Amino acid sequence: CGIHIHLNGARFDAKSLxxxxxxxxxxxxxxxxxxxxxxxxxxxxxxxxxSSFKRFIASSAAAxxxxxxxxxxxxxxxxxxxxxxxxxxHSRYHGFNLHSLWYRGTVEYRVFxxxxxxxxxEAYISLILAIGSRAINANDNTATAANIxxxxxxxxxxxxxxxxxxxxxxxxxxxxxxxxxxxxKVYKWLTYRxxxxxxxxxx
Length: 203
Prior knowledge:
Elements: E1 2-8, H1 14-26, H2 28-35, H3 39-45, H4 51-58, H5 60-63, H6 67-75, H7 80-83, E2 96-97, H8 99-104, E3 106-113, H9 118-137, H10 151-166, H11 177-195, H12 199-202
Helix pairs in contact: 1-9, 9-11, 10-11
């Protein structure tokens, strides 16, 4: 069992969706470790991204792609017209689930373990809102697989990136005021998790 968080897909065009996917795949292993996703969920209900789709997202072709083309790449060999209407299509069982976008109009995150802690749930929601806001309103396409750093450097790079991306301690035009109000709590939680990582865990 886990927590599923949905972002309204109506705000995403092709470019912002590619930015969102690039950020998620760039930090995929890091996110899974950061959130402590259980092996059972990684292997079944919240799988990591398909390698072929990740390669497409990281390519220069994705930056100028259309939503229909991205959808076709997501479903791969499946018939797009039937796959997008299938509630339990196998592609839904990914931590970053775009089948939900084509099926119900939301981008779904399935990476969060179950919790009844309201502060933790609030932090999860705020984190996803901030990531979504950045993808929609930023104008960069730099979050590709080639930017990944390793070992201790990755931890420091991630802390800096999260700090900038979440707008901690600064005014960020693209961030909703309600999200900004909760960012300090989110960053405190992220820092706590990041400080607990060891070099061999993120290499």
